[in-house]
Each structure stands twice: as structure tokens, then as C-alpha cells.
Amino acid sequence: LAMFENLKNLINKKHHGKKASHDMTPSKSESSASVSDGSYTPNGPPKDSETYASDNRTASTMCIPSPASSRNSLMHLCDSPVSTESSHRLFAENELNQKYPDLDSRYQLMEKIGDGAFSKVYKALDTATNTVIAVKIIDKSSTSTTQLNNVLKEISIMRTLDHPNIIKLLAFKNTTLNCFLFLELVDGGEIFNQIIKLTYFSEDLARHVIVQVARAVKYLHEEIGVVHRDIKPENLLFTEIPFVANPAGRVVRASDDDSKLDEGKFCPGIGGGSIGIVKLADFGLSKVLWDRKTQTPCGTAGYTAPEIMNDLNYDKAVDVWSLGCVLYTLLCGFPPFYDTDQQKLANKIVAGDYCFLSPWWDEISKEAKDLVTHLLTLDPVERYTVDELLCHPWVLQNNKATEPALDAPQYS
């Protein structure tokens, strides 16, 4: 119990294997706990000075506030009298652009919203469409061959993706100095930060999140032939919806303390806890995989499948394991596998050594626990598929009986 109390304290201090990030865009693949396949060569990697723009995914599809209402465009600022504050802001924005002479003038950088080991993420105005987007800038001089290979792989995969629950790549430019990824701006930020804020999610909100992520994974597996390999709360972004107070008052569990924030009212089909649409991000560790297995080490330790830890061949089932880890974390606020010692953590994962710890799991339904156990089944052949996840009684809320998972821990 002491270990889990310490873990909860770490989470409350915004630690979860790494410091909580306030990035609103898919960055941080560079800070992943593992190494990608350095031998991978994307199909037709972009050449220097090449620019790619999507022909069927325009900036107008972005789920963001209109810049006309939330922040006047720079063009409007220039054409009309501005306040001292606006003048300072405009000067700062121009100063940001001066740092990147190879950035197209149509993009006006507004503020930095993320910082990685070799990349920076900015909120920016696309003056051609008068919309606010995110620009991820990778400094080539600071990247290794493997890191740059990851970036090019991420781009080659994201070019092919078009799904409402996956972050959109709007355009790309590759110069001798930098790689520029022009991305959909998702205004809510990371699900990870929302877990920290709310401590855990209600079953309704957890279901709302995991179903959207599962649909994105199903699309990747079945239509694109891609395994993500790094699904975790930090790589899940959400569009923010207005908070609606729960008319019945703050819903709490017996394990809660007075600091537990109100999640608010959940609206089916819309969301709750300020979380609307959920989008999967960060494809730096993804791998194209059509009916074959791979053996490349990847992923973030606490969410990595046992077959990867054991250096065995693996397939798309590793993403289902990660979905199980995410669902567990959403429901109670901490991950199923945790240890400050990396070797001990790996040992717990390969042994399937997790439990539904009291008192945090005492009030969570048997159906939710049943789904978690099927997703965290050690044998990838016996592990649920994404389709089985989406058809589970807890997801459909039909109370239909299921066969217990082979190696499920005891629960009531």
C-alpha cells in the first residue's frame, strides 16, 4: 500500500514517469523511453525544401475557436490601432518568426506551447486561411540519424491518415535547417494532464475516452496497417468543451479526499470533464505492419506489452495491451504497472503482476474490471482484439455475461 500511496502522491505532483507536459500537439516522440527501428526508411521521404500540403484535410476542419473571436489575426492587428499589450505581442510574434528564416511567411508564430529535446511546438496563425494551428519545428542540427528517421517516419505515416480521432497533419516542409510539421491544434491538451486535474475519471467519462481511442486504433490496424506502439495518456489529446456542473453535486468515491475536483455533468455523445473529441497523436514510434510480426523495441515502459519486454515477435495486439493500461489509469488515476526500478517494472509487466487495489477500485463496476482483465491478458493470442473491446458489455452497457480472462486477478 505504501508504494501506491507514494505513486498517488507522485501523480498529484504531476509526475508519471516524466514531468507533465502542457503540449497541445503531438510532440515528445523524441523523449520516449525506447529506441525506434533505425533501419526503417519511409516510402519516398521528403527531400530538402519539399513542401507537402493535404489536399483533402483543410484547416477549416480543425476543432478550435475561431481566431476572429479568440484572438484577432495579425493582419487585423496591423490594419487597425492596437493597444500597448497588442503591440508587444505583435513584436514578440515577429521576433519568433525571425528565429526561423526558412519558415514560410504565411505562418505567423504566436507563442510556444511545447518544448522537446530537439523540437519546439508553437501556436501559429495561418494567414492564408485565418486559422490557428500548431507548428512543430525540429532542429536538424540537434537530431541524430535515428531521431530524424523517426520524424520522417512520423510524417510518412501521418500523410496517409484521415480519421476524426487522429491528429491531422495539414502540411509539411523539410529544409536544410529544420523540419516543419503544420498540425491541427487541439485546444484541450493532453488527457494525461486532465487525469492529474481530476484524479481519475468516472466510468462514463473513461468509456467516452477509451472508445474514441479504440476506434482510432481499429482504423490504424485495419485500414492503414499501422501499429502505433506508444499509446499512453500523454499521446491522447482532446478538444475542450464547456464545463457543466453536475446538478446532483460533486460525485465522489470513498477513497477521495477533499481536493477531488468535480468532473461535472457527463453528456452522452458529447463528453464531460471538459473533454469532447479525443485524438491519438505522436506517430514517431509507429510501424507499418501488414500481417507480419516485428521485433523492434519500442514504447513507454509502463504501457508496453509483455511480448515486447520479452524481446519476442509482436503484432497489433501490443496496442490493445496499451489500451488496457490506459483504461486502468483512467478509472483509478494510476497505471497498473509501476515501480521506480525499471527492471522491477519490467518483471511485473512480463508476469502480469497487477491488481485492483482497495480502496481505489472498490466502487468500480465488475464489468469495467472484466474488460481491463481481457485487455491485459498476457498471451497476445488470447488477448481481446479492438473489435472485442468495442463489443464488450461495459462499452455497450448491456450487462451481457462474458467469459473471464485466463489470468485475471481476483476481483469482486
From TrEMBL:
Keywords: ATP-binding, Kinase, Nucleotide-binding, Serine/threonine-protein kinase, Transferase. InterPro entries: Kinase-like_dom_sf (IPR011009), Prot_kinase_dom (IPR000719), Protein_kinase_ATP_BS (IPR017441), Ser/Thr_kinase_AS (IPR008271). Residues 107-395 form the Protein kinase domain. It comes from the Eukaryota. GO terms for molecular function: ATP binding; protein serine/threonine kinase activity. Gene3D superfamilies: Phosphorylase Kinase, domain 1, Transferase(Phosphotransferase) domain 1. ATP binds at K136. Residues 8-67 are annotated as: Disordered. SUPFAM superfamilies: Protein kinase-like (PK-like). Residues 24-42, 51-67 have a biased composition (Polar residues). One of its GO terms (biological process) is filamentous growth. Pfam families: Pkinase. Belongs to the protein kinase superfamily. PANTHER family: SERINE/THREONINE-PROTEIN KINASE (PTHR24347). This is Protein kinase domain-containing protein. It comes from Babjeviella inositovora NRRL Y-12698. The lineage of its organism: Eukaryota, Fungi, Dikarya, Ascomycota, Saccharomycotina.
